[in-house]
Amino acid sequence: MKGALDAVEQALGAIERAFLFLANVCLGLMLLFNAVNIFWRGIFDISITFVWPWTLLLFVWMTFFAFFVIYRRAKDITVEYFVELLGPKALHATRLFSDALIIALMTLMVVEAPRTLSSQVGDMELIPLQRYWMSVPLFLSVLLILVHFVVDLFRALAGAPERRHVASVPE
């Protein structure tokens, strides 16, 4: 079981790095498109019409790609101060509870994904893509977060420390 969990962890780590790269590509393209647009407007006094919708799409994608990275790197907001005062058993119990809660929420989102995606029909404004493509990175992140917390739940049940409390976790 540990070997399978370690293999999934390695795969999640590789996907995390890929999603971080994609989020940065989205940010870079937003900056590039807007810099060109500002330059173009300064020289020719004409705005490039496709910049705004592509910037919006890239911002949404960047956010959704980063969604998985934030959870994976344990950069989400947690309030552990009072739980830590209650001791390691309380910390372990809240870990199990939060893992189960997140698994339930992510499962609900995965189950609803086909219905949500199928309701997003039509082309985006000035972008030759169907509207559902805006949400695809969200559901990919949701699925990966689900896998991440299932692995963490198994690790918690086996007594392994939480990733955010392990000093050797790479930033």
Write a structural description.
- The chain is mainly alpha-helical and 171 residues long.
- The chain has one domain.
- It is 73% helix and 4% strand.
- It is built from five helices and two strands.
- The protein has helices spanning 2-44, 51-72, 81-86, 88-119, 136-157, and strands spanning 123-124, 127-130.
- A two-stranded antiparallel ribbon has the order 1-2.
- Strand 1 and strand 2 (127-130) form a beta hairpin.
- Helix 1 (2-44) packs antiparallel against helix 5.
- The longest helix is centred in the N-terminal third of the chain and has 43 residues, at 2-44.
- The model has no long low-confidence stretch (mean pLDDT 92).
Give a summary of the structure in a few sentences.
This protein is mostly helical and about 170 residues long. Helix content is about 75%, strand content about 5%.
Using only C-alpha atoms, the radius of gyration works out to 20 Å
Measure the end-to-end span.
26 Å
Number of strands: 2
The description of the largest β-sheet is:
2 strands, antiparallel
Number of helical regions:
5
